[in-house]
Amino acid sequence: MHCRRYKPPSSLMGLVLGLICVVEAAKVNKHKPWIETTYHGIVTENDDKVLLDPPLIALDKDAPLRYAESFEVTFTKEGEICGFRIHGQNVPFEAVVLDKSTGEGVIRAKEKLDCELQKEHTFTIQAYDCGEGPDGENMKKSHKATVHVQVNDVNEYSPVFKEKAYRATAIEGKTYDSILRVEAVDADCSFQYSQICSYEILTPDVPFTIDKEGYIKNTEQLNYSKERMYKLTVTAYDCGKNRASEDVLVKVDVKPTCKPGWQGWNKRMEYEPGTGSLALFPSMHLETCEEPITSIQVNIELETSHIGKGCDRETYSEKSLHMMCGASSGTVELLPAPSGSANWTAGLPTDNGHDSDQVYEFNGTQAIRVPEGVVSSSLKEPFTISVWMRHGPGAKEKETILCNSDKTEMNRHHYSLYVHNCRLIFLLRQDPSESENYKPAEFHWKLDQVCDKEWHHYVLNIEVPAVTLFVDGVSFDPFLVTEDYPLHASKIETQLTIGACWQGGSAQMSQYFRGNLAGLMVRSGKLEKKRVIDCLYTCKEGLDIQLPEEVGTNIKVQFNPSQSSVTLEGDDMESFDKVMQHVSYLNSRQFPTPGIRHLRISTTVKCLNEESCTSVPDVEGYVMVLQPEEPKISLSGIDHFARGAPEFESAEGVTLFPELRIVSTITREVEAEGDSEDDPTVQESVVSEEIMHNLDTCEVTAVGEELDAEHESLEVDLAQIQQHGLEMSSSNMGLIITGVNTMTNYEEVLHLIRYRNWHTEALFDRKFKLVCSELNGRYISNTFKVEVNVIHTANPMDHVNNAMMQPQFISPIHHGSMDLSGHTLANSHQASVVPSAATIVIVVCVSFLVFVIILGVFRIRAAHQRTMRDQENGKESEMDWDDSALTITVNPMETYEDQHSSEEEEEEESEDGEEEDDITSAESESSEDEEGGEPEDQQAANRQQQLEWDDSTLTY
User: Fold this and answer.
1) Rounded-to-integer distance, Cα 345 and Cα 498, Å
2) What are phi and psi of 581, to 5 degrees?
């Protein structure tokens, strides 16, 4: 029972009701709070109070009735609302009770709301009463009500254009409904603030206008001659009047009156070596001026006629190319680069053009003779002749490429290859035989390639009666074959010539050739395979197309064998433009020939109306191949050493390049760190890096006199050379190793080269030089010179006999002989660098003279000391030992080592780079004696220690 006293009025009723007590009969929480089932609220982005409909009020039946104020009322907490609870994940709201007795509450945002992230929030809410008991136990909760809160937008964002800049093209004299459209967006969440209500061109006095959708059109016809491009600044406004944060630039190119043709390409395209393929027309498209095109054909041609041999091939020597392409051995190169062993081409003028390939020019007055022994006088069938030739329309007389004719007396042509009236003719007269029947002798081919002033590759496979000609890898059979009798037997020798034919009867040249030749090769005993011919002709540069997948088979693509031209056919204009944009130039050479490669595009179109079909003009441009970073080939190693004469005379000989190393580097300019604009002193620096590439020739040449085959030679294991895929030729000047191979393989082969000389009595030194090159002499190494000295030694038995004759002086004599003939020369052999032969002879002579002087001094000193010892020990000398049974063993080496081991160690430590025979051990001893290092008694005692008693025969 809980009562509260109330002061009654003075009336009678007040007396009767003097005390009104409201008794809290039972403290029981019987009812749950009650709230609405659904609430809808609105909150603004910059506010936290949620306006709910209906208001948030919770009711509880446990709450007492309200009487007049004059009554004493007992209030209970079971009827009060203690709180609201919100259910849901990451709900950014909270519910707060404003009045517990009335159950009134409010919902507020716990954090700043963003309409752009979430426009609406939905969650549930429950009301809780205060329960019963002193601690509010057994509280009751209402059912869950759903609350929907909408976040109202605030115009906080400005419009932003979708593109940073816009560009369009308008044809002059034409009025457009729309040239292009600009578009801006607004990040606000509401429809009102997110919509773009208007656009505006800010640039004054321009013949353009823009509507509220962003479409720009011209207000008057444009004139290309007046203005080629307009620049417009455009802004945008949203419906809340916010202006775009950044205005946008619009460029309108004025295009002259439509003319059919290719557009969007550059006439000059630069190609940097080593960068793979270069897209030639990345933005190219065909302008048809709205003409209905039914089909189109395009031919793209890469013109490289100014490049040696027709395109940018690997310009190794032709013999090396045959080896690379897998041709068998036996191929003879008739137009090699001039060298010590192949100098018959030295007088010919060369095409000093765009690459280093040996291209020889014949102007109708030059011809060369091939020395005897280079090619067999009678080629053994089957055989192959191949040549690169560039020839224009010539005179009506014959022009000889290759001719084998009588050397004297007569003018018979045994075989020849010549041009006559734009025909290529091969003549082969059979050797004398028992039968005198006609046999095929002349084979004719009439070809446009012979006189088109372009480079072509010709290969003749001869196996009579069949002769096949391959021109640029394509085979041709002769259209005319003429028969003739075999030649009569004769002992006249033949002469092989190039560029004309030798007339033995008149002893002069005739039928001169006018044009360019290169890579003239002859191979006897075997025909060239088709795959080898294709390899020889294959270009290292050409056109390429990587078709996109979406094009499929809409466009037909066809390349020529050398990939210098490609033909495209199709009827889908959109696909055609994409294919053209994927045409690329590719040069796989590591060091391509720099210069211009001309491009020509010819186009043929067909229309629905053949009479009014448009014509597309040809396009001409060029690819500029930039200068590659040229390598520097460096040869290094031991360049001066000496060996004993027996090594030169041995079967193994002396290795010339035991530690040779071949390194190739490239030097390129790099931008220095820092801002060169701010600091004018900052300049580009250079950096060198080592690269790997192939060599094709290394030549070892004797310096001075030529090699005399009677007593000296350069030798190398041919099996090892062939194992490395290389070939070797030798002469009295030296030897040449050829073949395209790695620098490592060339190192290994050069390490095997040995020099032998089996008569070295008068030889003191020999000098050689080594030069390596790549790409047929395009890149040449430094000249590495090696000098080898021959060490002539005296007979070591002379020193032994002297020691046996004078045993009392065996220690110093043996010391001196070892120092001269053993220590000095052995170290000279080990040292890589020694003086010249003359210097060695002088040093040996001076050392021997010093040795004789020291020997005399030792004898005088020994005699004097023995006399003094006899005088001092006179009495002791009277007692004579019976030494008949004694054996005395003298060990001079042991004595020498004991006395001078420490001295030699000090000398060896101080000999860094000095001549080893400047100070001998004997000289060191004499200098010590002169300085008075030890008393004479001590020296006598040391001598006595040199004697060892053999007491095995003594009896005690």
Assistant:
1) 10
2) -70, -15
Strand, coil or helix: what is 421?
A: coil
Asked if 294 and 335 touch (Cβ cutoff 8 Å), the reply is no
**What is the β-pairing status of strands 631-636 and 619-625?**
unpaired
Spatial separation of the C-alpha atoms in residues 518 and 540, rounded to whole Å:
18
**How far is the CA of 67 from the CAs of 7, 18, 61, in angstroms?**
16, 17, 16
CB count in 10 Å sphere of residue 26 = 7
Residue 504 region by backbone torsions, left for phi larger than 0, else alpha for psi between -120 and 50, else beta: alpha
CA distance 802 to 38: 133
Q: Quick one: how far is CA 322 from the chain centroid?
A: 26
pLDDT given for residue 357 in this prediction: 56
Do 278 and 625 form a contact (C-beta atoms < 8 A)? no
Contact 716, 728 (CB under 8 A): yes
Q: Residue 781, Cβ neighbours under 10 Å: how many?
A: 21
Helix, strand or coil for residue 132? Answer: strand
User: What's the CA angle centered on 136, arms 134 and 141, to 5 degrees?
Assistant: 160
Q: Is the predicted pLDDT of residue 217 greater than 90, yes or no?
A: yes
Tell me the C-alpha distance between 674 and 680, whole Å: 11
pTM score above 0.70: no
As a whole number of angstroms, the distance between CA 650 and CA 892 comes to 34
User: Which is nearest to 250 in space by CA: 327, 313, 180, 191?
Assistant: 180
The secondary structure of residue 282, as a DSSP letter, is T
Helix spans in 12-60 (H) = 12-16
Sequence-separated contacts (24+) of 431-439 with Cβ below 8 Å: 431/378, 431/486, 431/487, 432/486, 432/487, 432/488, 432/489, 432/490, 433/486, 435/486, 436/485, 436/486, 437/485, 438/483, 438/484, 438/485, 439/464, 439/465, 439/483, 439/484, 439/485, 439/486
Q: What is the pLDDT of residues 305-361, one digit of tens each?
A: 666 667 777 666 666 766 667 666 667 888 887 776 677 888 788 765 444 457 888
- Cβ-contact 576, 552 below 8 angstroms: no
Top pLDDT among 185 and 440 is at: 185
pLDDT of 83 reads 85
Residues in contact with 520: Cβ distance below 8 Å, sequence separation at least 6, in sequence order: 318, 333, 334, 335, 385, 386, 387, 401, 402, 498
Report the 10 Å Cβ neighbour count for 424. 25
Residue 731 β-bridge partners: 734
Query: Distance between CA atoms of 134 and 175, rounded to whole angstroms?
Result: 89
Note the pLDDT tens digit of each residue in 447-505. Answer: 988 998 888 889 999 888 889 999 988 889 888 888 776 777 777 888 899 999 998 88
Whether residue 136 has pLDDT greater than 60: no
Q: Distance (Å, rounded) from C-alpha 201 to C-alpha 248?
A: 10
Higher pLDDT, 190 or 208: 208
- Rounded CA gap, 576 and 585, in Å? 18
DSSP E strands: which ranges in 23-144? 38-44, 51-53, 81-87, 93-99, 104-109, 120-129
**How far is the CA of 625 from the CAs of 308, 359, 565, 599, in angstroms?**
15, 21, 18, 13
When computed from its CA atoms, the radius of gyration of the chain, rounded to whole angstroms, is 54
Q: What are the pLDDT digits (tens) for 222-275? A: 998 899 999 999 999 988 888 998 999 999 999 888 888 898 889 999 999 888
Q: Hey, is 23 helix, strand or coil?
A: coil
Say how far apart CA 46 and CA 156 lie, in whole Å: 10
- Report d(CA 782, CA 795) in Å as an integer: 42
pLDDT bin (cut points 50, 70, 90) of residue 437 is: confident
- A 10 A CB-CB count for 439 gives 16
What is the per-residue pLDDT across 656-684, written as a single tens digit (0 to 9) for each? 999 999 999 988 766 655 554 555 554 55
